[in-house]
Structure to design on (468 residues):
């Protein structure tokens, strides 16, 4: 399955400004992207980066973090990357860029197109496999807070709209074009890493590059309040 | 499967104090409990309330909300309650009460015992069925923030500890007693309704008593910021 992975090279992860510097946020975003690409490949998908600009240096799925930060010896040893990940550069807003890509690919039942966000650092091949195998002309993995973290499109008439509560909008758009909708119930796919509290999920459930990056950056769990949050060493 | 549903009658849902009065929080907590009991029953489970005190008036799974607030005509029409839900009253802290109940029930592979939190208002029979059918001597549905929102115990040596990051603690305890662990990846089961932002999940994905209660209380989605939150009419 063709899997588009949108990635913004311009000031990524601004909602993590209270924890990381701009350079760190860029590095962290890239470590998450490496994990997402690895999970897509291991789920049998063919990822294509949909980037807002040329990615420099190129993302190397399994070695990126090591180039940037020391990764401890017990960091996960993933298999070799089967092939370079192709990149489409499109500087336009996310919705426009994805819809244009859907136009080019013309998804059908036998040749669906998936869109998987680059900050789903908890995505596993198993979770993505559930999404890829879900029925429906459109299969959606909703994000926490009403977003659309991943979807599979099998109807060429379907269009995305990532503004606002996109999960509800996408259900509505599917209904308008007569496309059936399947919803995938996954905590891993619902957890896009946007805010400070999301980092706790990575430390609790993650085992990839992004989790190693966080630990190396001195971010640890803080269980002093109701839900477990994170704290960073000074 | 025997399914314990712990429920605190004493000042429930204090972290929703910024949205609801004490009386409203009690009413809302009961509407969520009714939804959880319905989902457990529809998943084939036999729920038993583990309450900190006598529940007065008794919970009526399908009609509770109507007794407290007007429910609109399009509220979900659930089937009749197959039987009254038995109640065990135990005023001790959650961990002690659950472990004592596990002692009494002596869970085994053929007669497991589940523990499902009373604020999982998004739980569906399908999500609970995945939990009930998951392998492992212990099956855990982690909650957002490191909690344990639901689990199935098939090993009488396993003990719970709900303090702090209980998901990680429960994995550790299972390891100590040689019990295998299965983890259920479910956004619905990961979403315990504790804080203001959780209410958005109910409005987006819910269709039970608790969602009807929220709408009737004037709580609606607010999409003005990054993630969709909630707003309440004055």
């Amino acid at each position: 399955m063709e899997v588009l992975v949108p990635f913004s090279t311009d000031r990524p992860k601004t909602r993590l400004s209270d924890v990381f510097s701009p350079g760190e946020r860029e590095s962290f975003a890239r470590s998450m992207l490496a994990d997402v690409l690895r999970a897509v490949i291991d789920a049998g998908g063919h990822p294509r980066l949909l980037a807002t600009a040329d990615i420099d240096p190129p993302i190397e799925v399994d070695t990126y973090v090591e180039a940037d930060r020391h990764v401890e010896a017990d960091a996960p040893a993933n298999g070799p990357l089967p092939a370079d990940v192709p990149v489409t550069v499109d500087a336009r807003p996310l919705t426009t860029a994805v819809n244009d890509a859907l136009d080019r690919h013309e998804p059908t039942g036998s040749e669906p197109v998936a869109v998987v966000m680059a900050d789903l650092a908890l995505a596993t091949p198993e979770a993505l496999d559930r999404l890829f195998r879900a029925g429906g002309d459109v299969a959606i993995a909703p994000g926490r807070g009403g977003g659309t973290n991943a979807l599979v499109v099998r109807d060429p008439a379907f269009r995305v709209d990532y503004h606002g509560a996109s999960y509800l909008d996408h259900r509505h758009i599917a209904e308008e074009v007569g496309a059936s909708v399947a919803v995938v119930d996954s905590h891993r796919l619902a957890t896009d890493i946007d805010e400070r509290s999301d980092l706790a999920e990575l430390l609790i459930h993650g085992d990839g590059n992004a989790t190693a990056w966080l630990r190396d950056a001195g971010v640890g769990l803080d269980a002093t309040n109701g839900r477990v949050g994170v704290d960073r060493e000074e």
Q: What stands out?
A: The first helix of chain A runs from residue 22 to 42.
